[in-house]
Amino acid sequence: MFVNVAARSGVEAVTSKPANREQPATAADVVAETDGGPDADAAEAPAKMTTVGLRAYYGKSEAIKGIDLPVRDKRVTAIIGPSGCGKSTFIRCLNRMHEVVPGAHVEGKVLLEGEDIYAAGVDPVRVRRYVGMVFQKPNPFPTMSIAGNVLAGLRLNRIKLDNPSERIEKALRQAALWDEVKDILDRAGTSLSGGQQQRLCIARTLAMEPEVILMDEPCSALDPIATARIEDLIHELGASYTIAIVTHNMQQAARVSHYTAFLYMGELVEYNETDTLFTQPSETRTEEYITGRFG
């Protein structure tokens, strides 16, 4: 089933306040400081992806230590934790990006609609066509125009479109960028501002029509205004796509996600609905981290 699903024409790869280390005094204050996250009463969705006993290594060093975690369908899941806890490694395992690092390997399973993406015979390129990635730093191709950047994944994978202009407009509209660039599509992608470049990279991922989008701290290099635009975009995309986002910003996690997973030293400490995790954490380490007592 996975090979058939992965062969679809979808591809790769897809005003915020910094967390205060001394405040808030309680976990509930983190949620109270936000403008309100996604609907907490939404029915629990089935898992689009699930990790089972996931372990990730750099050589002999174990970075991810046996994590079992669902990533729910058409919901936003935030991955939080201090620097070096394995957040980015974990999310890169979800589309087999981790294994491109020399000496890196994975044990356990990552199930995509019930099929193990690490099973023998599964093409990692097809996995990445189905599970897109948006990186921490905007990375438009410098020699390509705005339009060329949107179509880059399609062209690299030799996917032909009957109407490429239609796909460009659709992706840019989905990324909330069309109105800003519709008259300058022939300009270099790098001519845009940092926030626009990140939305262009999101459009590049969306052009491949994936069903899962991974975001590795997509706002960390952006100013507050650009960050707010990206957060609004995540809200909109969460209705149609399964999204997993790594963030170091507690308030951002509370604002944009339906579910949150707290990682510490490569282990999953706690996973729950975002409102519950931030207001009634079941683990002491979770409360200490989200209230700024460590990390």
What is the topology?
Layout (H helix, E strand, L loop, with lengths): L1 H5 L20 H6 L14 E12 L2 E12 L3 E5 L6 H7 L10 E9 L2 E2 L7 H7 E4 L11 H11 L7 H11 L3 H4 L12 H13 L5 E5 L7 H14 L4 E5 L3 H7 L2 E6 L2 E7 H6 L4 H7 L5
Parallel strand pairs: 3-8, 3-9, 6-7, 7-8
Antiparallel strand pairs: 1-2, 1-4, 4-5, 9-10
Give the total of beta strands. 10
Number of helices: 12
**Rg, please?**
19 Å
Q: Shape from CA axes?
A: globular
Secondary-structure element string = HHEEEHEEHEHHHHEHEHEEHH
Architecture (CATH level 2) name? 3-Layer(aba) Sandwich
Largest sheet: 6 strands, mixed
CATH class descriptor name: Alpha Beta
Domain module count: 1
Regions with pLDDT < 50 over 5+ consecutive residues?
1-25
Mean pLDDT: 88
Describe the strand arrangement of the main beta sheet, using strand numbers.
6-7-8-3-9-10
- CATH fold node name: Rossmann fold
CATH superfamily: P-loop containing nucleotide triphosphate hydrolases
Could you describe the 3D structure shown?
It is a single chain. The chain has about 300 residues and is of the alpha/beta class. It has a single domain (about 1-45, about 70-95, about 125-290), classed as P-loop containing nucleotide triphosphate hydrolases (Rossmann fold), CATH 3.40.50.300. It has 12 helices and 10 strands. The strands form 2 sheets. It has a 6-stranded mixed β-sheet with strand order 6-7-8-3-9-10, with helices on both faces. Strands 2-1-4-5 form a 4-stranded antiparallel β-sheet, with helices on one face. α5 (about 145-155) runs parallel beside α8 (about 195-205), α6 crosses α8 (about 195-205) and α8 runs parallel beside α9.
